[in-house]
Amino acid sequence: MDAEQLRENAHRMVDFIADYYKSIESFPVLSQVEPGYLRKLLPDSAPDHPESLQQVLEDVQANILPGVTHWQSPNYFAYYPSNSSIAGFMGEMLSAGLNIVGFSWITSPAATELEIIVLDWLAKLLNLPDDFLSTGPGGGVIQGTASEAVLVVLLAARDKFLSRIGKSSLNKLVVYSSDQTHSALQKACQIGGIYPENCRVLKTDASTNYALSPDLLNEVISQDISTGLVPFLLCATVGTTSSTAVDPLPALGTVAKRNGMWFHIDAAYAGSACICPEYRPFIDGVEEADSFNMNAHKWLLTNFDCSALWIKDRKALIQALSTNPEFLRNKASQANMVVDYRDWQIPLGRRFRSLKLWMVLRLYGIQHLQQYIRNHIELARQFEDLVSQDHRFEVVTPRVFSLVCFRLLSPDDDGDKGNKLNHDLLDAVNSTGKIFISHTVLSGTYVLRFAVGAPLTEERHVNEAWKVLQDEASKLLASVQNN
Ligand code: PLP
């Protein structure tokens, strides 16, 4: 690594990226390439001799960017956002520059200690109970994703139960969630050896706005107990992936406590909104939770990946995940004086991810971050108004945060035709390249999702997106009427 060469190349790369952001609106938001497009454009094998950065950047421009879906475009409204920011970007750069591997405290004390401090900061910003702070028996850790977070939580809960009831009782452990819970939980169950027949996916519907019913949960738990099964994990969601449903945490927490279960809260997307006092009530009830997770990389201006997980009983996590090979032994670890985050996660190696969260919190400050969230929610509210004013459309579920679930009404009121119509509208809109939205299915109905949350999105982008949707809807309805 030659320092001067780094300086020159990195400056050029930053220029390239800055130019990309300047022209980001000129690209189709959803990549329009066909599968396998890149193999035709690149050589079959790596070069024998070094090429220049200029050549590589030309290839990026000509061959890679067409195959990129532009998540940072202000016209990106699909899935959930995955934020980038100058602060987050610089944190990533610094992390790449230092390139430490902070699995044990000794391998870079600052990496471990900054992560502890920054997660305490964020816990305080979210007004999480003190039990989640590093000063008590719990603490926070940065995982790569919400999927990793729920997996390590499931393993901790599983082993805590098995140590009490015996390893041979694995087949008795039951997990509870709703049919709106992210599939990450199912994957965690598969990896964690939970018997598929013991995964209770409880049905939701429009009567609860797709939130999990505590009464139904109670009923199912009672049945399971009566057949000798052991309820061990309840996963609630604040801001479900399909429609931002909010499970009733206080009531669910009571059920979990009464049955001695581990209570996990997945607030991957909506957790960011809870830094605003007016949205914090959505996580009231977190006091009863054993673990809480939110993705700062979704909607808190922290570049991917940065999934914050807090746990009340860090010992449970460490007992499930710790190993102690000779080659990792050192004085600080052996004396139990430090946190070794390798025991809080699946891999050994870990990046210095707290740098970017630290930079985001410091360079933007709490008030600016709150304003950022409020602005997106206001833009979503405006979009919801636009949809409501056009009698050809309907808003399907009440908007809670910055996601609007809506659909084009079928002229002949036919469910299947209505689903096809909306599927066609999604394809038509995304094929324009002007915007990118995604879909879900709620109670058998195909629904369009418009998620505001890209950092560059302004009111004009929302208005233009609505115009694209209206124009494509008009064309579709005309073609349906002509057939
Ligand atoms: N949970 C919720 C509520 C989500 O919306 C998502 C993704 O959108 C996930 C979990 C999975 O996130 P990750 O990609 O961080 O595993």
UniProtKB/TrEMBL annotation:
Names of required cofactors: pyridoxal 5'-phosphate
Pfam family of the protein (one): Pyridoxal_deC
InterPro entries reported in the protein's UniProt record: Aromatic_deC, PyrdxlP-dep_de-COase, PyrdxlP-dep_Trfase, PyrdxlP-dep_Trfase_major, PyrdxlP-dep_Trfase_small, Pyridoxal-P_BS
UniProt keyword annotations, A-Z: Decarboxylase, Lyase, Pyridoxal phosphate
Family: Belongs to the group II decarboxylase family.
Protein name: Tyrosine decarboxylase 2-like isoform X2
Lineage: Eukaryota, Viridiplantae, Streptophyta, Embryophyta, Tracheophyta
Gene: LOC115752454
